[in-house]
């Protein structure tokens, strides 16, 4: 009771609003609620969003208390996420109210009362534009956010929470009603507010407010007397004040509840999503384990080799500049960006199984060995080059090791055996040439194969290909040939009518599963090809 | 007379008991130690001394680490980027608006074919769209609400999603329109709290997930087996991203403890950690070369961290940007950083120079997710206003 009488003296300090009744019962009835929730139907999920119980529930003391607790939706998360924006907005709003440098306010006469400190929408926008050096559109967007969060409220159209950059009237909300991160707006307070308005004048509540009032009456029934008494007390205390104060307070309160209990078909900016499991504001307990962990981590960080900023940042800049001409946002892609012109030729030219790639793609292959391998068309070209050099086993081994690393756990031992027989066993058809130590380690590891057993060998082969074979490929006739043959599509120049027609003729394209199956078939074909050739070569050798 | 006998027996038993008691404690405490309370008092003094010593050691290590970093910190990013040409004006418009979700869109992912998208929403619906034609190709209704994570498989044949059900489920997509996708669902990951993000690794066979219970985990899709778990965050983990580099063995995760951790997938160890944000990290994304990553946070800043120099190298913030960044992604070259914010806007940053190049309006509620397409031709943003927009 005492905490609600403080409600009258609209102070800047905010008394805690948690309803002691619900919180006291929470630990006792938690298990019962969990049991009850198991029986709840999943179709009531939409009603769970607003926290209301199934319609037609028995109004029974125990059950109503349980239902109140059901409002606290239990997925184990109970902590509101941090709202770091609120502090910054508060600072901004305080600056706005500064009498010298803030938004200029005036008095407004309304229904024979004069309301102080009213500000106009265009003044707010102008102030934000000058104060934060932004343009008008951004200032209006920021202003709308201030209104949506309830720091500024409109006088003329209270339910539409946007900032109109014209002469519309606004007022800054009193700090008592500012959104707080620590607690949610309570249903009890909302019920008291609706009851107050209902008592003052019957029929003043909107349709949606009446529905909510009825629902609240049902499940806060156990403390309805308290609510009605509070409402009456507050109305009585309000009558003792000056009319202008009363009017202003009623506007403030109405604005607060429009933000925290928005009308239907609108959203509340206070909606933040899912609660957190672990209290984001809680500090981790600093015991010996914590410090030991930190010490180990920092020791490792000191031992780790770090690079000079000139080197690492220089590499970042170089990467960006190298790829700038390939970035569709920076350099228009040829022939045209499919999203802009509705013509998907660009994608057709860059399909993985295309005959002739574009010049841009071929250029990109030369930027790095992994770029070449990553592009299926590039990898196919590289495989062709290796076939001519009779060293296709390296790439085949690398691919097989990748498949082992990223494949299903159940297939590991089978794949490991195949790889051993094909690549590592002495006299294997595709024997790879790695140094003795790595070979020894790998063969030993293969006795108990795990996902990363081929990592050492794979890295060795990758480095070998990267440092030697790749550069030879770039100088080879295969690459020069493809460079010559690569197509350079001309940019599209569609007229408006053609663009419209393109928009009408958008094709669905190939399904990814179809493309995938094709790729798999192709892969099987190329691998069997290598094996057969090697086997034949071996047979001939032996003969 | 009987009493006399019982007294004697009592005294004898008492004496025997005392003897055994003393013997027992002598053996326990050892020579020189008589009273247990003294020993316990000695133990109480030790832990606080040890903690103070450990704290001092960690502080000295910290100063040493800072010194080493300062020695290598010889230039700033915008200084290196001075010789780079500034960007021109950008005209990015909404090219497609995908309407079909009945509730907040929480997450989306592109398919490798550069045109298909999977998106998930608060009401449990997961929809696969062909964003180019804006057709809906598949739709699944999850049994839970708040599907906060969804991912497209690299082959394009499956999608993974999860949320408040604490699980990550994989749905194979079939070409048959009438087939009920929910029938073939495979439950892969099991966490003890909500799933915040999931991603396939280089193949369809492994999934990396992060959860509100503070852990990340690597799972084998076929068997549902846990391959590796990653512990180290002190609060909910909200996002993760896999490294694009050729070694491909690391990933970065960001959490509510304001930390971004880089993990080694093979050993499960945290190899690097960055704690410069002032609030929860909502999104992390690797730079295209894999040597750096960006993070977006509730403190309304996006930051770029260099992995080789082991420090933060750029902060993307503006006085007028007050509301948190929910999602970030790089363009193909890494020159542009797109950020979706909680004030319904998308800001485009010049990564090298640190300035904002464009602000995009259009959404009517928070932008919850933002991804650039695999070939960099467009990016898609999903918002709490029930729509997804493709911008180019």
From TrEMBL, chain B:
Which GO BP terms sit in this record? signal transduction
Coiled-coil segments on the chain, per record: none
| WD-type repeats, residues | 98-139, 188-229, 230-273, 274-315, 327-359, 360-392
InterPro entries, A to Z: G-protein_beta_1-5, WD40/YVTN_repeat-like_dom_sf, WD40_G-protein_beta-like, WD40_PAC1, WD40_repeat_CS, WD40_repeat_dom_sf, WD40_rpt
Please give the SMART domains that the UniProt record associates with this protein: WD40
**Keyword Transmembrane helix, does the record have it?**
yes
Which UniProt key words apply to this protein?
Membrane, Repeat, Transducer, Transmembrane, Transmembrane helix, WD repeat
Transmembrane stretches, by residue range? 12-28
Q: Return the similarity comment.
A: Belongs to the WD repeat G protein beta family.
Spell out the subunit comment: May interact with RGS9; this interaction stabilizes both proteins and increases RGS9 GTPase-activating protein (GAP) activity, hence accelerating the deactivation of D(2) dopamine receptor-mediated signaling.
Q: What is this protein called?
A: Guanine nucleotide binding protein (G protein), beta 5a
**Organism encoding this protein:** Electrophorus electricus
Ranked from the top, the taxonomy reads: Eukaryota, Metazoa, Chordata, Craniata, Vertebrata
């Amino acid at each position: 009771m005492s905490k609600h009488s403080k409600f009258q003296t609209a102070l800047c300090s905010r008394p805690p609003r948690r309803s002691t009744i619900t919180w006291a019962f929470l630990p006792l009835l938690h298990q019962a609620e969990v049991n009850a929730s198991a029986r709840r139907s999943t179709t009531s999920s939409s009603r769970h969003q607003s926290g209301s119980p199934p319609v037609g529930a028995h109004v029974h003391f125990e059950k109503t208390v349980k239902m109140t607790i059901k409002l606290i939706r239990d997925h184990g998360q109970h902590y509101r996420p941090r709202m770091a924006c609120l502090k910054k907005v508060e600072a901004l709003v305080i600056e706005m109210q500064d009498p010298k440098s803030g938004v200029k306010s005036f008095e407004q006469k309304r229904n024979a009362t004069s309301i102080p400190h009213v500000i106009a929408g265009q003044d707010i926008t102008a102030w934000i534009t000058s104060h934060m050096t932004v343009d008008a559109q951004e200032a209006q967007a920021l202003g709308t956010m201030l209104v949506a969060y309830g720091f500024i409220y409109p006088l003329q159209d209270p339910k539409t929470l946007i900032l109109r950059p014209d002469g519309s009237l606004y007022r800054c909300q009193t700090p008592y009603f500012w959104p707080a991160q620590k607690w949610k707006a309570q249903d009890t307070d909302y019920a008291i507010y609706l009851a107050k308005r209902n008592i003052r004048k019957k029929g003043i509540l909107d349709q949606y407010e009446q529905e909510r009032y009825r629902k609240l009456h049902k499940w806060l029934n156990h403390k309805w007397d308290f609510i009605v008494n509070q409402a009456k007390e507050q109305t009585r205390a309000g009558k003792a004040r000056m009319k202008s104060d009363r009017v202003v307070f009623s506007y403030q309160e109405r604005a607060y509840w429009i933000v925290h209990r928005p009308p239907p078909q609108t959203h509340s900016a206070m909606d933040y999503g899912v609660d957190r499991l672990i209290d984001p504001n809680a500090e981790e307990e600093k015991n010996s384990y914590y410090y030991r962990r930190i010490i180990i981590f920092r020791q490792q960080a000191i031992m780790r080799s770090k690079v000079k900023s000139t080197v690492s940042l220089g590499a970042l800049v170089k990467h960006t500049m190298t790829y700038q001409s390939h970035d569709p946002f920076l350099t228009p892609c040829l022939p045209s960006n499919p999203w802009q012109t509705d013509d998907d030729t660009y994608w057709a030219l860059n399909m993985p199984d295309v005959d002739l790639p574009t010049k841009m793609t071929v250029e990109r292959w030369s930027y790095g060995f992994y770029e070449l391998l990553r592009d299926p068309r590039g990898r196919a070209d590289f495989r062709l080059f290796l076939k001519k050099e009779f060293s296709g086993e390296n790439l085949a081994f690398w691919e097989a090791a990748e498949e082992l690393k990223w494949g299903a756990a159940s297939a590991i031992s089978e794949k490991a055996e195949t790889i051993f027989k094909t690549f590592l066993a002495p006299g294997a058809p595709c024997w790879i040439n790695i140094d003795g130590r790595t070979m020894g380690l790998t063969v030993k590891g293969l006795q108990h194969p795990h996902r990363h057993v081929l990592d050492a060998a794979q890295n060795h082969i990758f480095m070998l290909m990267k440092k030697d074979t790749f550069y030879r490929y770039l100088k080879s006739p295969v690459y020069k040939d493809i460079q010559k043959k690569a197509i350079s599509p001309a940019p599209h120049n569609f007229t408006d009518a053609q663009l419209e027609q393109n928009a009408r003729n958008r094709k669905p394209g190939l399904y990814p599963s179809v493309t995938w199956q094709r790729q798999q078939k192709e892969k099987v074909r190329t691998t069997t090809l290598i094996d057969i050739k090697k086997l034949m070569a071996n047979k001939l050798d032996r003969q | 007379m009987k009493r006399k006998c019982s007294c004697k027996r009592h005294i004898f038993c008492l004496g025997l008991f005392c003897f055994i008691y003393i013997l027992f404690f002598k053996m326990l405490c050892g020579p020189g130690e008589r009273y247990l309370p003294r020993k316990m008092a000695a133990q109480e003094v030790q832990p606080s001394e040890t903690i103070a010593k450990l704290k001092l050691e960690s502080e000295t290590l910290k100063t040493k680490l800072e010194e080493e970093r300062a020695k290598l910190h010889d230039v700033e990013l915008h200084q290196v980027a001075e010789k780079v040409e500034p960007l021109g004006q950008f005209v990015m418009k909404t090219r497609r608006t995908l309407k079909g979700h009945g509730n907040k869109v929480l997450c989306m992912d592109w398919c490798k074919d550069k045109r298909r998208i999977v998106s998930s929403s608060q009401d449990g619906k997961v929809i696969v769209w062909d964003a180019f034609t804006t057709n809906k190709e598949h739709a699944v209704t999850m049994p839970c609400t708040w599907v906060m994570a969804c991912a497209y498989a690299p082959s394009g044949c499956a999608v993974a999603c999860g949320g408040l059900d604490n699980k990550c489920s994989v749905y194979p997509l079939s070409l048959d329109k009438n087939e009920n996708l929910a029938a073939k669902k495979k439950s892969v990951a099991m966490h003890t709290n909500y799933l915040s993000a999931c991603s396939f690794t280089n193949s369809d066979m492994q999934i990396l997930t992060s959860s509100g219970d503070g852990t990340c985990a690597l799972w084998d899709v076929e068997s549902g087996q846990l391959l590796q778990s990653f512990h180290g965050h002190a609060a909910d983990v909200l996002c993760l991203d896999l490294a694009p580099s050729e070694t491909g063995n690391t990933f970065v995760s960001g959490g509510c403890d304001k930390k971004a951790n880089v993990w080694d997938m093979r050993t499960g160890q945290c190899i690097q950690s960055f704690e410069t944000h002032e609030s929860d990290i909502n999104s992390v994304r690797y730079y295209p070369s894999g040597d750096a990553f960006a993070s977006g946070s509730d403190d309304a800043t996006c930051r770029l961290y260099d992995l080789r120099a082991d420090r933060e190298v750029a902060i993307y913030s503006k006085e007028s940007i007050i509301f948190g960044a929910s999602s970030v992604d790089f363009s193909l070259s890494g020159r542009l950083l797109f950020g979706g914010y909680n004030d319904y806007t998308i800001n485009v940053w010049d990564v090298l120079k640190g300035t904002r190049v464009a602000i995009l309006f259009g959404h009517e509620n928070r932008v919850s997710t933002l991804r650039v397409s695999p070939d960099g031709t467009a990016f898609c943003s999903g918002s709490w206003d029930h729509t997804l927009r493709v911008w180019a």
